[in-house]
Design goal:
Blueprint: E1 4-13, E2 16-26, E3 31-35, H1 42-50, E4 57-62, E5 65-66, E6 77-80, H2 92-98, H3 111-120, H4 136-148, E7 154-158, H5 166-183, E8 186-191, H6 194-200, E9 203-208, E10 211-216, H7 218-223, H8 228-233, E11 238-245, E12 248-251, E13 254-257, E14 263-269, E15 283-292, E16 297-303, E17 306-312, E18 320-323, E19 331-333
Parallel strand pairs: 3-8, 3-9, 6-7, 7-8
Antiparallel strand pairs: 1-2, 1-4, 4-5, 9-10, 11-12, 11-14, 12-13, 14-19, 15-16, 15-18, 16-17
Helix pairs in contact: 2-3, 2-4, 3-4
This protein binds adenosine-5'-triphosphate.
């Protein structure tokens, strides 16, 4: 197993800067997720780590060793992509055994190891099937088994669930996480789905525009977003900007009591922190919509040319709604 470090990594394609000065450390055995909107540089990061491309600047290290100049096949990395990419002319078992031929030990007699891996991914007995006779979820399990076959130091998963339906995606992500825990393999997972990132990861790097905005546990990036981008990308948020003085933030005709240092300030309040029963920091807005979600109701309020989102227990029957938030529920961001 191995830790992974990216130090000052930059990747340019002509005029495009896909990655700008990325510093990241993934600990040995960690499940680490890169999350961010389309085009933010997630796949580029994985490609550089896998060795499919070389960075235009910076260094990538596995443990303490730089992998600069080391070709992909010598990096001990297993990769699963969004597209299943199984070899269609090979059976499931042959697909899984494919990775073993490079490792020496099991290359001569792969069957026991193939059976073990298929068992691990819940496909015991599927070795003789053709990939075309498998569902999408099963194909991704085979791709995972193939990537894990040579016991890689590092497992890279690039949106491996995105072609699957929501329910299957949830099930498979739990399975992948359980397998990763069992094997203790250092894993970098790429997704644009922030909910998925929060659900499966030890730590998350939120990326935007080729940069890392914040690295933290799922709780940290949700509860203590360090930038406005993270506050709005990870879950929903209501963002306010104003000027603070003596614990009061002035945002035009209204002011809020928020524990912020004097000067210009941006803070955010989660929809679930805006409550009808709260008598501090109240705002009254016009109810634009109310969506019953089962466990709560998501209400959109128009307030001063903008929308506020709040969560309530019941669909409001008035046209106007007053909600407030506690000063300690406001999170100041950069
Ligand atoms: P997605 O979620 O859509 O896969 P991503 O976060 O993985 O997006 P990347 O694929 O890493 O994003 O792309 C980052 C940026 O680099 C994008 O602006 C993309 O257009 C650009 N880019 C990636 N590969 C190349 C290339 N080979 N040539 C030119 N530009 C590229």
């Amino acid at each position: 197993m191995s830790s992974l470090t990216l130090a000052g990594v930059e990747q340019r394609y002509g005029e495009t800067t896909a990655l700008a000065d990325v510093d990241l450390t993934v600990q040995d055995g960690e499940f680490f997720t890169l999350v961010g909107p389309s085009g933010c540089g997630k796949t580029t990061t994985l490609r550089l780590v896998a060795g499919f491309e070389s960075p235009t600047a910076g260094d990538i290290r596995f443990g303490n060793e730089s992998v600069a100049g080391v070709p992909p096949e010598e990096r001990d990395v297993g990769v699963v992509f969004q597209q299943y990419a199984l070899f269609p002319h090979m059976s499931v078992g042959e697909n899984v055994a494919y990775g073993l031929q490079f490792t020496g030990t099991d290359g001569e007699n792969p069957e026991p190891r193939v059976a073990e891996l298929l068992e691990l991914v819940g496909l015991a007995g599927f070795a003789d099937r053709e990939p075309s006779a498998l569902s999408g979820g099963q194909q991704q399990r085979v791709a995972l088994a193939r990537a894990l076959a040579p016991e890689p130091d590092l497992l890279l998963l690039d949106e491996p669930m995105s072609a699957l339906d929501a329910r299957l995606r949830e099930r498979l992500r739990r399975e992948v996480r359980a397998i990763q825990r069992e094997l203790g393999v250092t894993t970098v997972y790429v997704t644009h789905d922030q909910e998925e990132a929060l659900a499966v990861s030890d730590r998350v790097a939120v990326m935007s525009d080729g940069r890392v905005e914040q690295v933290g546990t799922p709780e940290q990036v949700y509860q203590e977003p360090s930038t406005r981008f993270v506050a709005e990308f990870v879950g929903e948020n209501n963002v306010f900007a104003g000027r603070a003085r003596d614990g009061i933030v002035d945002i035009g005709p209204t002011s809020f009591r928020v524990p912020a240092a004097d000067g210009p300030v941006t803070f955010c309040v989660r929809p679930e922190a805006m409550q009808i029963s709260c008598e501090t920091n109240q705002v009254t807005g016009h109810v634009e919509y109310a969506e019953f979600l089962g466990e709560s109701v998501r209400v959109g309020l128009s307030w001063r040319d903008r929308e506020l989102v709040v969560r309530t227990n019941a669909v409001p029957d008035e046209e106007e709604l007053t909600v407030g938030f506690a000063p300690e529920d406001a999170v100041v961001v950069a």
